[in-house]
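Re: that backbone. Tokens:
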């Protein structure tokens, strides 16, 4: 008989619904409780999905003894909540992106990742979206040859979608780490929102396996999908020796290998919502597999995501110092982001 996994969620905003809904597609798991500081939010989610509601995450975790905790809160709460989860010996935990907001919290999470027994991963759910999976599998099969160049673009800013596109692009390149970052940035966007970041960023990346890439977020990004809605412009593409793949979240996907071509579109909003929910469920399932088998570590694990945030920080440093930044031994100063923001004034 398959093991039954017990889940809880911290944070009851709009994003929480997809996490909870995904459990309806997972036979051997159940989400049983939710937690939020605002009573109207937690009570609404509890009534909607038949959950037990809590005001305090520690109390919920101690009482429920979950196998997995989903943190669906703003990034300012990451360190405190992830530390709590680790200290209470929860086996699994997922969190929203971005994993950090600056240097100090990134360093604290690097220390946590090194010592914690909890297996953490970040919710880049499109890594399991059916068409992006097709693109990654086509490259992984070897029939397109070696990946030479990546394009990763997003209409929203670096914190809003930029970390998504970096992760999705890296999935097309075997998750080879970034070796060098040469980038620039302009302005500072949304300082009072959950996703503060420069208004526009652009970086040229060199990966350890020799591939190159361009990574843009914000106004400089090309338009894809429906150009009147900025959040619909997630696009990744990989150019290989014998072909290419392209994935636009709200546009088209395509796999080209010589004269052979396979393509389609996102299928409209109902299809998108169905695919997105299936991808969310697949992400949760990947965590359960990881608990049973260390070799099943998902490509959004905390170590990977901390490397990706280091790439973000290297972009800031490159923009300030007008030079390429080598990732090996990269140790940004604690006030790096503040220095960049001051430079924007």
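Recovered sequence:
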């Amino acid at each position: 008989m398959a093991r039954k996994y017990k889940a809880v969620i911290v944070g009851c905003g709009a994003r929480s619904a997809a996490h909870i809904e995904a459990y309806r597609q997972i036979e051997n798991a159940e989400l049983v409780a939710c937690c939020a500081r605002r009573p109207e939010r937690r009570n609404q989610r509890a009534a909607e999905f038949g959950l037990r509601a809590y005001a305090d995450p520690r109390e919920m975790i101690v009482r429920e003894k979950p196998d997995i905790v989903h943190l669906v809160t703003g990034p300012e709460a990451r360190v405190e909540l992830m530390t709590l989860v680790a200290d209470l010996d929860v086996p699994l935990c997922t969190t929203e992106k971005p994993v950090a907001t600056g240097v100090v919290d990134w360093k604290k999470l690097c220390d946590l990742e090194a010592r914690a027994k909890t297996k953490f991963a970040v919710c880049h759910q499109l890594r399991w979206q059916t068409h992006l999976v097709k693109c990654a599998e086509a490259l992984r099969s070897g029939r397109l040859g070696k990946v030479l160049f990546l394009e990763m673009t997003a209409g929203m800013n670096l914190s809003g979608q930029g970390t998504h596109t970096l992760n999705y692009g890296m999935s097309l390149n075997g998750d080879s780490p970034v070796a060098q970052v040469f980038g620039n940035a302009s302005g500072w966007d949304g300082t009072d929102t959950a996703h503060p970041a420069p208004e526009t960023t652009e970086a040229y990346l060199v990966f350890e396996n020799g591939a190159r890439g361009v990574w843009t977020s914000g106004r400089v990004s090309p338009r894809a999908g429906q150009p009147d809605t900025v959040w619909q412009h997630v696009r990744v593409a990989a150019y290989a020796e014998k072909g290419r793949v392209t994935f636009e979240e709200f546009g088209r996907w395509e796999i080209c290998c010589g004269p052979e071509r396979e393509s389609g579109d996102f299928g409209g909003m109902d299809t998108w919502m169905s695919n997105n929910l299936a991808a969310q469920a697949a992400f949760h399932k990947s965590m359960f597999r990881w608990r049973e088998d260390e070799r099943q570590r998902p490509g959004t694990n905390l170590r990977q995501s901390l490397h990706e945030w280091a790439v973000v920080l290297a972009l800031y440093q490159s923009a300030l110092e007008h030079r390429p930044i080598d990732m090996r031994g990269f140790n940004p100063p604690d006030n790096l982001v503040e220095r960049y923001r001051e430079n924007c004034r």
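Residues 269-292 form the longest helix (24 residues). The mean pLDDT is 94.
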